[in-house]
Amino acid sequence: MGFKLNIKLGVATSATQIEGGNLDSSWNDWYAKGKIKDNSNPSRANDHYNLWKDDIKLMKSMGIEVYRFGIEWARIEPKEGVIDKEAIEHYRSLITEIKSNGILPLLTIHHFTNPMWFEKKGGFKNKDNIEIFLNYVKICVENFGDLISEYLTINEPNVYATHAYFYGLWPPGEKSFFSTINVYSVMAVCHIKAYELIHRMRKEMGYKDTKVSFANHMRVFAPVNPKNLIHKSSTKLTEWLFQSLMNSAYYKGEFKFPLKNFEDVKKGDYCDFVALNYYSRSTIKYIGDGTLKGAPVNDLGWEIYPNGLVECAQELYDICKKPIYVTENGTCDLNDSFRSLYIYDHLKAICESSLPFERYYHWCFCDNFEWIEGEEAKFGLVSVDYDTQKRRIKKSGEFYSKVIENGGVTDSIYDEYVKGEKYHN
Ligand code: BGC
Fold first, then answer.
1. Quick check: pTM over 0.90?
2. pLDDT of residue 200 exceeding 90
3. 405 alpha carbon to ligand 1 midpoint, in Å?
């Protein structure tokens, strides 16, 4: 039942989801417009902006080896061209604290949230804003480049573009295929140019160990009925629109129709490691998303399909032969009754694969502000009482800690934490 693991294990978070603070940002605005299901306010979240020292201490006590975290653009550049020195100092202290606790930081530059001034200019829909984003990247490297060698430029461009511009569920709430394609395209150029910029700037600073990628949300897509031609072709179309189309642009600079190469970027290799965010498999009848009847699901109804992690990693490795970091994997489990089993199954799939997995960042370190689901969805290894901001390591957090300590799952860890758990459907 047990297995050994030869990868570094850690956790992931994003700025908006844990920091709190009343910012002039797209998600604070979205809350003000009444769009969060449980009406929870991102300005509360986990108050990590004040409690960061305690949180890093807690991570250290859990044995966390690597930590993926985000910084908030609306804090760093609250008005276009105006840099908030205090915010910079805050993040420098945070990074220093992470490192002095022996934890290796991986920094996400953009994770779903824009300052309102950028949003009002059309955000990533507008190709004229590419320079503005790159200027923000420059600010980041100028101020954190001496402390950080590993970067993710953008988190999940496909999820961002479809939720914000196709389904209209996230700010700015548009429902337009053309805008979605524009966002895909603009973000691809932003990623590629940021990739080049970070490398160039760090090189000028004298560093040789820079690593840059983007966090890519991948799913397995399967037809509801594999014999039904419509289901099959809808599956292919969805997969192409959501994944294949963008993968060639982001990794290779190959912009296939209908994507647009706004700044004539050259074909090349634009990732130093594959950063895979994996959660679930979607089954398709027409365009959209579904879950296979009877399949194990989490508390948001997402299918639990551990082998999909390896299937997606393989797909990306075929495009980009670089080490694989699982930069997000986790589940919404309100009672923490199957999270250990979920982690076990996904780590086991990694362990049994021959692909070059090097890191696994569990999503999430703690329960947090889960976008339009608000505070109701629970993805954390650590629970948070939002009124008192008290943290408590869950049973799954204890399990994960033991896995790190033992370099894998021993039979007795399995018996204590995993054996009694089961998924529901
Ligand atoms: C996002 C996270 C989010 C998680 C769970 C990922 O798509 O990057 O911000 O919390 O999924 O929904």
1. yes
2. yes
3. 26
